[in-house]
């Protein structure tokens, strides 16, 4: 496939890169499982690897279907573009940087808005970190609203095919930060997202939660106060483990919990909204707070009834 065909059909980019991915996986597997040069949580365990590839397949198939709808939407907005931007080496670099900036905010929103976290949690739910972890993606990203974050690039005047291409290129490059085989990249740690930075991002250690959202450039985290250096050994996973290797359970568990909480009794409309769109911990707290309030009222009512009975007995 030549480059022009790849731009015309950007959805196949990750398939084109697949041979490189599998070579890296084999090398990492050999280092860890054969040479014992990597931690135990970097090893390849068959149930999890199968789950990771299952999630990737579901994500890829969904992208093909929803991509057609999103492409039509992008083309509609492209008709209202502000500028006609011709693609060349300079504008490609501008697009890559602009897209990476948009990616930072998409990624940050995916951790701070529960509706989006419900899709993104599949990627973070593994308690291991190796190249196959990069394949843990969710088919629910389109529903969560991922595509909205790239829309400004189309409105400015970048061709939608190029926008989708650089989005997928960004995601493809992020494959290489999902490893424990590389400790540090020296001076590059100041500028680009590295395995060390991304290990922090996957940690559930308190100081690592909601840090290092970078796609390619770590400068966004340094600029917006979300950077954290890898110091303490990373404990991978999420604070509410899913404990399943079933791709469907991994994909939908948080959606199930979120909607179950949103329709809980005794919640006000405002609280239901916050269950869906507050940061994950705050959203869950809405139900807990309301349940505590109801419990307090019931306890006060019981105490009042008990007091009334005591008064009646005295009389």
TrEMBL record:
Residues 284-295 have a biased composition (Polar residues). It is a multi-pass membrane protein. GO terms for cellular component: endomembrane system; membrane. InterPro entries: Fatty_acid_hydroxylase (IPR006694), Sterol_desaturase/TMEM195 (IPR051689). Its main location: membrane. The chain crosses the membrane at residues 12-32, 53-75, 87-106. Residues 297-315 have a biased composition (Basic and acidic residues). One of its GO terms (biological process) is membrane lipid metabolic process. It comes from the Bacteria. This is Fatty acid hydroxylase. It comes from Shewanella pealeana (strain ATCC 700345 / ANG-SQ1).
